[in-house]
Amino acid sequence: MSQLNISELMSEELIIDELSSRTKMDVLKEFSSLLYDNRKIDDREGLTSILAAREALGSTGIGDSVAIPHGKLKGLKSMVLAFGRSKSGIDYDSLDGGPAHLFFLMLAPEEAPGEHLKALARISRLMKNPAFRDALMRASDRKEMKKIILQEEARL
């Protein structure tokens, strides 16, 4: 089984070094707009609805300042990943009750549930490292964030 590389699925244009959002719903809308503006999706509102429906099942705020909003999208050709950071933190109904600062948004084609689960597991594993989370919080821009993600992935 080939190794799934998060860094290969995520281009620099899909990294937001400082989210403008202040609420969970705004985060979902901001990511939907980012993907729409970068021509990764063609229905901004539809994506926001899919992500909100997933959040209604249970928060994707996994704790340790991390949230992994995700969903499956009909007609999507391949997996799409985006990353965002909020230095001030956003109340995201996280499992540990704390604010979320680091967000990995993941979209998978509806017909690829295995890839979806592999990517979720990989992101969760990466985000377990406190030094990695700290480095992402300190990064000066999205270019440095991408480099940090590449380095951490190589280390695993």
Description:
The protein is an alpha/beta fold and 156 residues long. The protein is built from six helices and six strands. Strands 1, 2, 3, 4, 5 and 6 form a six-stranded mixed sheet that branches. The chain has helices at residues 6-9, 24-37, 44-57, 113-127, 130-138, 142-155; strands spanning 15-16, 61-63, 66-67, 70-73, 80-90, 100-109. The longest helix is centred in the last third of the chain and has 15 residues, at 113-127. Helix 2 (24-37) runs antiparallel to helix 3. It has one domain (10-155): 3-Layer(aba) Sandwich (Mannitol-specific EII, Chain A), CATH 3.40.930.
What order do the helices and strands come in, and which of them pair?
Layout lengths: L5 H4 L5 E2 L7 H14 L6 H14 L3 E3 L2 E2 L2 E4 L6 E11 L9 E10 L3 H15 L2 H9 L3 H14 L1
Parallel strand pairs: 1-5, 3-6, 4-6
Antiparallel strand pairs: 2-3, 5-6
Q: What attributes characterize this protein structure?
A:
156 residues; Mannitol-specific EII, Chain A; alpha/beta; single chain; 6 helices
Number of helices: 6
- The oligomerization state is single chain
CATH topology: Mannitol-specific EII, Chain A
CATH class: Alpha Beta
Mean pLDDT: 93
End-to-end gap: 16 Å
H/E series: HEHHEEEEEHHH
- Approximately how much beta-strand content do the residues carry? 15-25%
Task: Note the main sheet.
Answer: 6 strands, mixed
Helix proportion: 40-55%
Structural class: alpha/beta
